[in-house]
């Protein structure tokens, strides 16, 4: 699925994404507005599918990314962000040395380089968890880091 990116001077950026049944075009305006168009084939005119503001776009993006629901097992989940940075989901297994630790006492960032950006706990999402947040068995930690950071975290996850 090739993605073509181009600058739109004075407007923002355009992303053209080839699909099996046509093409999707996403325009991100400098103002934060997003527009999504569909083009059935390269010679056809684009038709606007929807438009939304920056906050809604980020919310939808996190839903699509999987921050609210994981349709696959966390240990198989991997998303690569620009620059080769990974967005990973890790479930705290029973007996993990991290269970009962706070983010501060676990010192994950200094020990591994991984940044914990959210925690899925049952039906709740704790976004930007504070240092005082205590880790519980079954929590799913959402972390961002390099592949090396992720490997180092996986080593301390199970002890």
TrEMBL record:
Q: Which GO terms describe its molecular function?
A: monoatomic cation transmembrane transporter activity
Q: Which residues form the RCK C-terminal domain?
A: 75-159
Recorded hits in SUPFAM superfamilies, A to Z, give: TrkA C-terminal domain-like
Q: Which Gene3D superfamilies match?
A: Regulator of K+ conductance, C-terminal domain
Which PANTHER family did the record assign?
K(+)_H(+) ANTIPORTER SUBUNIT KHTT
Name by which UniProt lists this protein? TrkA-C domain protein
Q: State any GO BP term from the record.
A: potassium ion transport
């Amino acid at each position: 699925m090739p993605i073509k990116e181009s600058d739109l001077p004075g407007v923002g950026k355009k992303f053209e994404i080839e699909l099996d049944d046509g093409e999707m075009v996403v325009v991100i305006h400098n103002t934060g507005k997003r527009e999504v168009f569909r083009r059935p084939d390269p010679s056809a005119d684009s038709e606007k599918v929807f438009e939304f503001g920056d906050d809604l776009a980020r919310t939808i993006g996190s839903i699509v990314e999987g921050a609210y629901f994981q349709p696959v097992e966390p240990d198989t989940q991997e998303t690569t962000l620009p620059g080769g940075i990974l967005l990973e989901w890790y479930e705290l297994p029973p007996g993990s040395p991290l269970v009962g630790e706070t983010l501060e006492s676990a010192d994950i960032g200094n020990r591994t380089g991984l940044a914990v950006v959210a925690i899925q706990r049952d039906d709740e999402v704790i976004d930007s968890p504070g240092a005082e947040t205590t880790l519980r068995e079954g929590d799913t930690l959402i972390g961002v880091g390099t592949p090396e950071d992720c490997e180092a975290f996986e080593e301390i996850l199970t002890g």
